[in-house]
Write a structure and sequence with these properties.
CATH topology: Hypothetical protein af1432
Distance between the termini: 66 Å
GO molecular function: 5'-deoxynucleotidase activity; metal ion binding
CATH architecture: Orthogonal Bundle
Order of helices and strands: EHHEHHHHHHHHHHHEE
Strand order of the largest sheet: 1-2
Number of helices: 13
Shape: globular
InterPro entries: HD/PDEase_dom, HD_domain, YfbR/HDDC2
Keywords: Hydrolase, Magnesium, Metal-binding
Structural class: mainly alpha
Number of strands: 4
Function: Catalyzes the dephosphorylation of the nucleoside 5'-monophosphates deoxyadenosine monophosphate (dAMP), deoxycytidine monophosphate (dCMP), deoxyguanosine monophosphate (dGMP) and deoxythymidine monophosphate (dTMP).
EC number: 3.1.3.89
Length: about 290
C-alpha cells in the first residue's frame, strides 16, 4: 500500500518499513528524515511537491554549517562553509564574459557540485579517502537527496552533479576551474585577515598549472602578483628586524618571527650562518 504525505499513518508506516527492511535501526534518536527518504525511495510514501521541496531545503540547510575541511585542518578561524563556497562560485559563473558557455548551466553546476556534502561532509585530500570511495559516498548522497524532488527535477539535479563529476562539458570544466580559483582566492583572504602572507601556500601549490580558461588565468595571475608583493613586503620587514644586532644570532627569535610572518615550516636547518648574521634564502619562498 502507498500512503500520501500528511496522512496520520505516514510516520508509523515509514518507521515500520525501515525497521522491517533492515535499512537502518530505528530508535528514538534516529533522524526521521532519513527514514522518510528510504520509505519514499521504495514507493511506500509519496510526498506532495510542496512538502518534498521543503524537505530538500531542510536537508540543504546543513551546508551552511558544514565548514570547508581544508581550512579547519589549517586552523583558520571561522572558516567558510560549503554554502559560502558554492554561492561565490555561482556568482563568479554568473558574471563570466565567455559567450561560448551556457551561463545558466554554469550557475546550476556551481550550486549543485558540492550538494552531497550536506550528508557526507567535506572530504578533503588530507582525509586520505580514495577517489572511488569519495565518489561512491557522494553519489549515494545525491540519490538520497534527489528522491525528495518530483521525478523531473530528480533527473535534472542528478545529471548536473554527474556532469560536473565526469567533466563531460565545457561548462563543467569551467566550473571546476572556478572551484579551484575560489579556493585560492579564499586562501589569500585568510592570509590577509591573519596578516600572515604566504601561510597557506600549499593551497596555491595544489592548483599550479590547473587553470586554462582565459578569464580565470587572468584573475589568478592578478591574485598571485598581489599576493607575492605582500609576501615580499613581509619578508623585507622580517629581514630588517633581523639586522638588529641584539637578535640576529638568536635563531629561536628568527624562527618565531618567520612563523609570525606566515612561514610555518621554518626550522633551524633553514638558517645558514654567514659572518655575523644568517642566510635567509630558504625562509621566504614566493
Amino acid at each position: 500500500m502507498t500512503y500520501e504525505c500528511g496522512e496520520l499513518t505516514t510516520i508509523s508506516t515509514v518507521l515500520s518499513y525501515n525497521h522491517s527492511s533492515s535499512l537502518l535501526e530505528v530508535n528514538m534518536e534516529q533522524d526521521l528524515r532519513t527514514c522518510f527518504m528510504n520509505a519514499q525511495a521504495a514507493g511506500i510514501v509519496k510526498g506532495q511537491s510542496d512538502e518534498v521541496n521543503k524537505d530538500l531545503a531542510w536537508e540543504l540547510s546543513d551546508l551552511e554549517r558544514v565548514p570547508r575541511t581544508g581550512w579547519v585542518y589549517r586552523n583558520v578561524q571561522k572558516p567558510e562553509s560549503v554554502s559560502d563556497h558554492m554561492y561565490r562560485m555561482a556568482v563568479m559563473a554568473l558574471v563570466t564574459k565567455d559567450e561560448h558557455l551556457n551561463k545558466d548551466r554554469c550557475v546550476r553546476l556551481a550550486l549543485v557540485h558540492d550538494m552531497a556534502e550536506c550528508i557526507v561532509g567535506d572530504i578533503a585530500p588530507a582525509d586520505n579517502v580514495p577517489r572511488e570511495e569519495k565518489h561512491r559516498r557522494e553519489e549515494e548522497a545525491m540519490k538520497q537527496l534527489t528522491q525528495l524532488l518530483p521525478e523531473d527535477l530528480q533527473k535534472e539535479l542528478y545529471e548536473l552533479w554527474e556532469e560536473y563529476e565526469t567533466q563531460s562539458s565545457a561548462e563543467a570544466k569551467f566550473v571546476k576551474q572556478l572551484d579551484q580559483c575560489e579556493m585560492i582566492l579564499q586562501a589569500s583572504e585568510y592570509e590577509d585577515l591573519e596578516n600572515k602572507p604566504g601561510r597557506l601556500q600549499d593551497f596555491y601549490d595544489s592548483t599550479a598549472g590547473k587553470f586554462s580558461h582565459p578569464e580565470i588565468v587572468q584573475l589568478v595571475s592578478e591574485l598571485e602578483a598581489e599576493r607575492n608583493a605582500n609576501i615580499a613586503g613581509a619578508a623585507n620587514v622580517f629581514i630588517f628586524n633581523c639586522l638588529d644586532s641584539s637578535k640576529k644570532r638568536d635563531t629561536v627569535w628568527i624562527i618565531k618571527e618567520a612563523i609570525e610572518c606566515g612561514q610555518e615550516n621554518v626550522r633551524d636547518g633553514d638558517l645558514e650562518a654567514e659572518g655575523e648574521g644568517f642566510e635567509l634564502n630558504k625562509i621566504f619562498k614566493s
